Amino acid sequence: MGELVLLEIGRKEIDQSRIEAIRRIAGEAFVPISYGGGIREIGHIRTVVRSGFEKVVMNTALHETPQLAREAALRFGAQAVVASMEVARGLFGRERVCTNCGRRQTSWRPVDWAQRCEELNCGEILLTSIDRDGYELDLVEPVSVAVSVPVIALGGAGLIQHLQGAISAGASAVAAGSMFVHFGSRRAVLIDYPGRLDLPS
């Protein structure tokens, strides 16, 4: 495992109680860690970075205040700014970028928005297809080709083969959550990562 990504889905804004919580989380992490959820202003980004997170992940804020990404990249470096891009199929099956936790569909096509995020100096793109359970390889490939920044595939991976497929489609990295968590007879959580021999070379 190379990095951890903490996404608080649905959080509207970071408050003081959340600041204390993310500081504790960052203090327990011994790998690079990113945070997303409720990032609305440069002060939020400053707080997250000073709390020990290497990167911030933004989605809705990039649409509402795109200059925030440029300012963050200028102050903290482009490598600290990750664009979260959620994609859903709309009318006639057309893929469109979504905001507000997938509840609002924009007019942006995935490739165009990925290029826009690169123009805004985002250092990475976290790409999720919210329509299906598994990586959308037909989405990963064109987005990866369209930009020079790393594209991280996220969403629905359940097997090592899914990870391999996303890398083969052009993703620079893959992210997964539930496939690493197992519940035994006592409903205890066991974090289980694939060994190096299980991963594509």
Topology of this protein?
Blueprint: E1 4-7, H1 16-28, E2 33-36, H2 42-50, E3 55-58, H3 60-64, H4 67-76, E4 81-89, E5 95-99, E6 104-105, H5 110-119, E7 124-129, H6 137-146, E8 151-154, H7 160-168, E9 173-175, E10 181-183, E11 189-191
Parallel strand pairs: 1-2, 2-3, 3-4, 4-7, 7-8, 8-9
Antiparallel strand pairs: 4-5, 5-6, 10-11
Give me a quick take on this structure:
The chain is of the alpha/beta class and 201 residues long. The protein contains seven helices and eleven strands.
Indicate the low-confidence ranges by residue numbers: none
- In total, the number of strands is 11
Number of domains: 1
Work out the radius of gyration: 17 Å
Rounded average pLDDT: 86
Question: What is the CATH first-level class name?
Answer: Alpha Beta
Termini gap: 14 Å
Q: Report the major sheet.
A: 9 strands, mixed
CATH architecture: Alpha-Beta Barrel
Helicity, in percent? 25-40%
Q: Indicate the structural class.
A: alpha/beta
Key attributes of the depicted protein:
TIM Barrel, alpha/beta, 23% strand, two-stranded antiparallel ribbon, globular, 11 strands
